[in-house]
From TrEMBL:
GO terms for biological process: signal peptide processing. GO terms for cellular component: plasma membrane. The lineage of its organism: Bacteria, Pseudomonadati, Pseudomonadota, Betaproteobacteria, Burkholderiales. Keywords: Membrane, Transmembrane, Transmembrane helix. InterPro entries: Prepilin_IV_endopep_pep, Prepilin_peptidase/N-MTase. The keyword Membrane applies. GO terms for molecular function: aspartic-type endopeptidase activity. It comes from the Bacteria. The chain crosses the membrane at residues 59-84, 104-127, 148-167. It comes from Paraburkholderia piptadeniae. Pfam families: Peptidase_A24. Belongs to the peptidase A24 family. Residues 21-121 form the Prepilin type IV endopeptidase peptidase domain. This is Peptidase A24A prepilin type IV.
Amino acid sequence: MLAQQDITEKHSMQYAAKSAACLVLASLALSDMRSRHLPTRAVLLVACLYGVDAEGVSLFSLAAHVATAMIAFLAFALLFRFGWMGGGDVKLAAAVFLWTGPAYAWPVFFIVSCCGLFLGIAALAIHSYRHRKTADSPQSTQHVVQHGVPYGVALAVGGIAAIWLPVLNRL
């Protein structure tokens, strides 16, 4: 009976960590939309909550998740180097891909990419509508380039998917 109670408590703690991570990701998405800023402490909290969720996993599994996060960090850092991504986005990408591990990295990357594409098109459309110019006008696209796309929103959506895809896969 005690072992069953320990398992139930472990699952409760994992679901609490997953839910808390989703709330933090949602707040990061809002922050990125409002100010184009992703607070480092909130990004770090998302990564730390993975540690709570990963309690009891094998060392090999943990190493695979950390390796996936490192690869994502390096890939997004390269995008940052070329000016295509903000520094907060790089950190958030590493935290999101820490949750994915190798098993869900490609599906989550696809989700993040599609959301990012949608955000980019929406940013161009909104700016064009506000200034009554066509989307292919150099002044219109220059505004979006200067202010950027809130890619943290796409990463947050991908992060929520990364958190819940393993659970949905077990159903």
